[in-house]
Amino acid sequence: MSYCFLYNPSSNRNRSYNSFLKLKELTADWRDTRFISTESRLHLKSEAKKAALRYDTVVACGGDGTVRDVAVALLKSEANLGVIPLGSGNDFSKSIGLDKDLERSVEVLKRRKTRYISVGKCNDFHFINTLGFGFDGQTNRYAMASKVRFGSLRYALSALKANFLRSPFKVNISIDGTLLDESDWIMITAANGRVEGGNFVIAQDANPFDELLRIVMIRSISKGLLPFLLPLFLIGKQEWLPYYECRKAKKAFLEFNRPVYIHTDGEQITSNDTKFDITLYPKSLEVICR
Which residues form the DAGKc domain (predicted)? Predict the structure, then answer.
């Protein structure tokens, strides 16, 4: 079997290089391998597409954004996706049974157990873990700019900042053709995975294998109350909240009354669009998982 390892040097805020060197040591006796250190997202996508034509497995070495970009490049190819989690959150990696232990991740690659995952698309961009609007996207924006090193702490502090700067919005929501009652919301998230922001459980039973999204909706909450409710997301008990609603879906359509903050797999999306067509494409990509 042949492997091409694509490494993003900016993963985990440029702190992943030593892990990458160790990865090369752990795979030194593997046959037919290649390591490429990418210079930009454009370079990463280009190399991933070329690697898909030559190698059995293309391995994304980085965080969720890196994994998503490589995954999208492999769509409609015969190559499968491998993952070495080197980011700060590594949320998608958790859904396929991986953690930050480098040696365990390498062993998973060697065993080559594969499953097919679904991939989401919204307008002209893709996601493999979560797509967030409103409070979710705003929190992500502040987290990306934060100097706090630890991922979950950075996300929690950014959520507190977003809480006091947020404003509710109105949105028409259609889930698999059913129109929901209009309400004031602070956050809408399409979840293909269970966690985001490191350890925050966004949808308890979400996973990329079951061919269904979880559309998570949070109604307007008092800014003074929300900080006391955030710990419920760390222990996976957010369903206790009367403000929280989660529905399974294959498709969703959102029409906001104004532009909102957006992220896809932890990457900010700059858009003035207010209409979003979300579709989950089942069994889109074969992935090596634990």
Answer: 1-126
pTM beyond 0.70: the answer is yes
Q: What are the C-alpha distances in Å from 193 to residues 23, 29, 49, 211?
A: 26, 34, 24, 11
Distance from C-alpha of 7 to C-alpha of 60, rounded to nearest angstrom = 7
Assign 3-state DSSP to the chain and report helix, strand, coil percentages, each to 5.
30, 35, 35
Structural domains of the chain, with CATH = 3-112 (3.40.50.10330), 125-282 (2.60.200.40)
Name the residue among 188, 240, 190 with its Cα closest to residue 217.
188
Distance (Å, rounded) from C-alpha 75 to C-alpha 71? 7
Measuring CA to CA, which residue among 139, 228, 135 is closest to residue 186?
A: 135
* Phi (first) and psi of residue 10, to 5 degrees: -85, 0
How far is the C-alpha of 68 from the C-alpha of 11, rounded, in Å? 13
- Rounded Cα–Cα distance for residues 287 and 46 (Å): 20
- Write out residues in the chain with pLDDT < 50, as ranges: none
Report the pLDDT value the prediction gives residue 12, as an integer from 0 to 100: 64
**Cβ contact 119:288 at 8 Å:** no
Helix axes 64-74, 41-52, angle to 10 degrees: 40
Give dist(CA 217, CA 186) in Å, integer.
8
